[in-house]
Amino acid sequence: MKLITRDTDYALKALCFIVKHKERIVSVSELVNELKIPRSFLRKILQELNKKRVLKSYKGQGGGFSLVKLAHKIFLVDLIEIFQGPLRLNECFLKKMVCPDMRTCVLRKKINQIEKYVIRELKSITITSLSKQGA
Asked: How far apart are the C-alpha atoms of 101 and 59, rounded to whole Å?
């Protein structure tokens, strides 16, 4: 299980860079050059963040991206959900089949507790806190 995928990681890096340069529009070329992220991946990620109203895109010469949301209101868990879907640590190995032990499974109860803790911690991490730490 991978908690943070490449897309989420790239989104975090791009957002932290944009936050550090919030006084201006940041171009895709600048992000590619500074962050060493492949242009095709980055464009897809930035378009998704624009679609989800985290970023605003500007077209044409001098175009690029700026934040729509305040950095302290963009949470790591939000980005995980945008690029990876809902965070689930407790997926039964039986997948779509209903587990006969679902209500009594001790492991499931423990993993549910861990999942709640992880989500609570992820909800406390913002782009602001990450950009201050040099993410």
From this structure: 55
